[in-house]
Amino acid sequence: MYPIDPNDLRRAIVANVTAALAEDVADGDINAALIAEHSEADARVITREPAVICGVDWVNEVFHQLDPGVTLVWHVQDGDRVAPDDTLVEIKGKARSLLTGERAALNFLQLLSATATRAAHFVAMLEGTGVNLLDTRKTLPGLRLAQKYAVTCGGGQSHRMGLYDAFLIKENHITACGGIAATVTAAHKLAPGKMVEVETENLDELEQALAAGADVIMLDNFSLEDTRTAVATAKGRAKLEASGNVNASTLRGIAETGVDYISMGTLTKDVTAIDLSMRLSVDH
User: Fold this and answer.
1) pLDDT score at 282
2) Grouped pLDDT means (10 residues each) for the chain, 284 residues
3) What is the pLDDT of residue 284?
4) What is the pLDDT of residue 93?
5) Catalytic residue flag (residue 283)
6) Which residue among the candidates 92, 103, 252, 269 is catalytic per the annotation?
7) Annotation says 199 is catalytic
8) Is residue 90 annotated as a catalytic residue, yes or no?
9) Cα separation of 175 and 173, whole Å?
10) Angle at alpha carbon of residue 264, lines to 262 and 270, rounded to 5°
11) Residue 103 catalytic?
């Protein structure tokens, strides 16, 4: 729904890595200092389970910030599917640099690959329906853009980035502004050209949102029967997004009602890191 700007993504990568190294390394890695300063090392990162890879640029940035002399040879790129024991990347450089960067690099790669893998799992369940899978703002703090990018690597789409690039008018906004029509009118006046989406909880609110000229209407926890009715009622006057109570057992049925989008917070908030390992060989 909202493509990710490559320049914004690049700035996020640098900021993410800078913050990760600041919290992990601070004023120096006393563990790596146990290794002789001039020792060289080779390492390779493998995966212990199937995954969709995401996070290549974060790993590159970790070692770039630590030691530009480290070289990385990737066997995969973001979006690739891998099997257990596949080698993802080979790394060569100062042993101290490889050891200092190991955890930060793997943290990014295992989390973002997990997000991409989870998205790919649900995208596959939608095959043939024409429905687009959307993420939400339920991301890990500080990793909004990273996780949203990972969702796209898994075949999903990015919803609005935050509170600034599109309207998502919820119950409290409607109450404070005096109704759906008044809120949508105010939104169009405040920021012409910005997408205006209205969250609705029943068919009556759907009718109000359609009459008010909403661009997208969220069907929040609608039953399948009401979702079908909503699709028939909207007749293309607005895009429809189903949300709430979406999981592996309900996803396909919701998609087959004919909605345009389905959003899932679980894509980014309930991920389990992919099991990765870095194996190191030091030349003394």
Assistant:
1) 86
2) 90 98 94 90 97 98 98 98 98 96 98 98 97 96 97 95 90 89 93 94 96 96 96 95 94 97 96 96 80
3) 64
4) 97
5) no
6) 103
7) yes
8) no
9) 5
10) 160
11) yes
Q: Is 205 a catalytic residue?
A: no
pLDDT at 2: 78
Please count the residues of the chain. Answer: 284
255: left (phi over 0), alpha (psi -120 to 50) or beta: alpha
Please tell me the predicted confidence (pLDDT) of residue 177.
Answer: 87
